[in-house]
Amino acid sequence: MGILLFTELGPDSVVLVTAAAGGIGTLLVQHAKNVGATVVGLAGGPEKVELVQRNGADIGIDYLRPDWPEQVRAELGDRRATVLFDGVGGEISRAAVDLLGKGGQHLIYGAADGAPLSLSEEELATRDITSEMVVGPRMLQRVDGDLRPLEDKAMAEAAAGRMRPAVQRFALADAAEAHRALETRGTVGKVVLQA
Q1: pLDDT per residue as tens digits for the range 50-101
Q2: Torsion of CA 100, 91, 111, 145, to 10 degrees
Q3: How many CB atoms within 10 Å of residue 82?
Q4: Which ranges of 65-147 does DSSP label H, i.e. alpha helix?
Q5: Dihedral sign, CA of 74, 187, 140, 113?
Q6: Residue 70: phi, psi to the nearest 5?
Q7: pLDDT-derived band of residue 165, with 50, 70 and 90 as boundaries?
Q8: Are 107 and 83 in contact (CB under 8 A)?
Q9: How does pLDDT run across 169-191, given as a tens digit for each residue?
Q10: Tens-digit pLDDT profile for residues 10-39
Q11: Helix (H, G, I), strand (E, B) or coil at 190
Q12: H or E, element range at 37
């Protein structure tokens, strides 16, 4: 996963993953746990939170609950998040950024809520955090346009059983149902239409 080129994770990391039951979020949770980080996975609804915990998150939180930021703070105690992998945007991302400690990284890989959270240079400097979009051209620059080594590494991790992608399948005839499920955040992992 190219997103990981933008940070180094280890046992001292406290990783917060929004959309932790999604396709990329599922893999980020597993990777962070595999390297010994403390992982907080955010997902919408009890079933998705349960999936996030089965994937290795130390703490699973339902971001549909209005008090979810307080739950995260209570679970972490005096620790703060060091890395936020953000695939949601909007108010959820705003609240998640507020859980980052000084020196924390806000790494944006998507915006399921419509638009990625944009932080001003002043806010970044005041809070001593960084924020950057890590997909698309930024990722291609990091690998000099060659994604093959990342693909090979991801396949090796999957073959070794350390990464298990989440895939939800729909029949091609049910494409409209699949779209409705995506629009209402009723899916987990990646969605595949099968003929």
Answers
A1: 999 999 999 999 999 999 999 999 999 999 999 999 999 999 999 999 999 9
A2: -30
A3: 22
A4: 68-76, 90-97, 121-127, 137-142
A5: negative
A6: -65, -35
A7: confident
A8: yes
A9: 888 988 998 888 888 777 777 88
A10: 999 999 999 999 989 999 999 999 999 999
A11: strand
A12: none
Give the model confidence (pLDDT) of 107-117 as tens digits: 999 888 788 89
Q: Where are the domains of the chain?
A: 2-142, 165-195
Say which residue the tokens 């949770």 belong to: 29
Structure tokens at 151: 């693909």
Q: Please give the backbone phi and psi of residue 99, each rounded to the nearest 5 degrees, phi first.
A: -90, -5
Distance between CA atoms of residues 109 and 107, nearest Å: 7
Q: Is 157 helix (H, G, I), strand (E, B) or coil?
A: helix
Which H/E stretch holds residue 103?
A: strand 100-108
Distance of alpha carbon 15 from alpha carbon 82, whole angstroms: 6
Integer Rg of the chain from CA: 16
Strand partners, 14: 38
* Encoded tokens for 180: 């409705």
d(C-alpha 20, C-alpha 23), whole Å:
8
CATH of 2-142, one of 3.40.50.880, 3.40.30.10, 3.40.50.300, 3.40.50.720: 3.40.50.720
Greatest Cα pair distance in the chain = 52
